[in-house]
Every structure is written in C-alpha cells, then in structure tokens.
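Chain X:
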Amino acid sequence: MRANIEVRQCGLDIIDSIEDLERRIFRPSEIYTRGFLEWLCENCSNSSYVAVKDGVYVGYIITCIDRPGQGHIVSLGVLAEYRRMGVGKLLMCSSICRLKGIVNSIVLEVRVSNDAAINLYRSLGFRIHHTIPGYYSDGESAYFMVLDNEYLSQAYLKCQCDSGQGSQHHP
C-alpha cells in the first residue's frame, strides 16, 4: 500500500530531516553523527533517497558505492507508524534501480534479530553470506547479506527497474 508516497533524492538540503528520522527510528547507540550523515549525503546522494507521505518525511535509505562494482546499503529506516506499508521496499527498489548497470553486487548488514528487515531483504533476493559477531555497539551480531548474480537480475524485475517504477512517485 504505497498511497501517496513520493521518493526524493537525498541531499544536504534535507540533512535536518534525515537527522530527525535517525533519532526517531534508531536506538541512541545506533544513531549516526551529523557529520557522518552529511558525509554520506554528500558522497552517496546519487543512490540515496527519502520517502515522503503527505509532506512528511517517513523513511530514508543511504546507499554508497564501496568499491568499483559493489553497492552498499549503509542505512535504511522507516518510522514505526509507516512500516508494513511498502515504504522500505520502495526505498530499497529506488536504490537498486539507480545502481543498475553500475554495480555487480549490493551488500548490507542487518541485526540478526531484525526479522522484518531480513524478510524484506530476502524478498528482494538478498542472501545471508555470513555472520559478523558483535557488529553492533550493544554486542548483537549482524548478518552480512549479498545481492548478486541472477538474484540481482531478479531484483531488477521485482523492482520494475526498466519501467522506471523503482524511483518514481507512487500515487
């Protein structure tokens, strides 16, 4: 249910809104510093987006290119009251479509306890590659997930990248 969700490119002009989303979505120990968010928005803006519903910023994704051929979803967050509405998938697809033809794989880290996020990523074709013990500051481990090969090609289809749906306004 993506009614009236618009996806806009991330940039320094909306850093205050992204910083506010960070504070409202993540645990205090997980929040990126403003300086790091500014660096991410400046250096990764081509494949990073915010979701806006009725003029309200409801989620964001920051995706960088770590090295030639590899995209990295650094952060994805959606406000609790807007979860289970397709916002996360819309943001993921926006980044995946933007990286089409640029990368051969996309990676991310996710808490092993974050079943909702893991299910979203799996639905798009990400596979658990390995576990990173104690990745988070509270000691929780992370799954390192990868989207590549035929799974990446399938993600382009699921996200309707060729039709321009991946990063468009969804009425």
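Chain Y:
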Amino acid sequence: MKTLPVLGTRHLSATLTDPLFLVALRLILQVRPSQPVAFRSQEQVDMLNCVAKTVAHGLFILPTGSGKTMAMFFPVLYAHLQGQATTTVVIVPFVALLNDLVRRARTVFSPLNIVTGVWPTDFSNAGGKDIHSCRLMFISVESVPSDGVTRLLQALCSQRQLSRIILDEAH
C-alpha cells in the first residue's frame, strides 16, 4: 500500500478539500486525523475521483483486494454526513461475496447508525427493517428479476431516494 497525498491535483480532485469529504474518507479507510491517507493504487484514487464527482456511469476494473469496495461504501457515508437520506443498491452475484460485503458494511456503518440490509430478508416482517431508512441495500443477482425488486426500485425512484445502483463483480 502506498501513501498518496490527500490533496494535490495530480492525485485527488479539488472536491477532496470539502471537510466532510475528508471525514468520510478517513472513516472509510479507518485512518486517524493525524495519520496520512493511504491508497492501494493510483487506480483506486482515480476511482474515488469518479465517485466524488458523481459521474453518471462508471466502470471500475481492478484486481481482487485493490479497494473497489470503497466505491460503494464511500458515497453512502458521504451522503449520510451531508444529511442526505438516499439509498445505494448493490447487486451481488455470489452469496459468499454478499455475506462478506454485508459483514464489512455493518462493521463500518453500524457504529454510525447507518442502516444496511439484504433484500428481502432484512425487510420482511421477521427482519423488521424499513426500506426507506436503509442507506445501503444488498440484493442477490437471482432476486433482481422478481416483482418485489422491481417494486422496491420503483418506490425508491418515485421518492427520489435511489442514488445509485452498483453491479459488483459483473461477469
């Protein structure tokens, strides 16, 4: 892991001078204010720049362990710090990957009272979570063609709550 400067036009965009952006970045990377921010690669920095600029579409192809998860976690935390009540939906192809992402998301977001969940399990009567309070929702790829997912996405869109859909490990 190499340390790149937090600020500097060659590495990170000017957006990163926003204090909330820097707080979110440090929380996601689990870095104390006195420590330098370290990225795994210049490609990870480029990816974060795209996410920070809220580019409408992005395709990030990086190897395993290169920090792609930051592209889905960071905007959720940044929006939360800005007081935005939006939802990011992540579509995941493998149950093992879904479980790993949920575990990692809950580690990051639970202490901050940011609701994460898995559709439909966490939102059934037994799961007890409200879809409108969820900020990061994981959906297995097998569930996507269902009427329930269609209704969910339509409801989030009609309330202007859906901020992004991420396809993880798109094969």
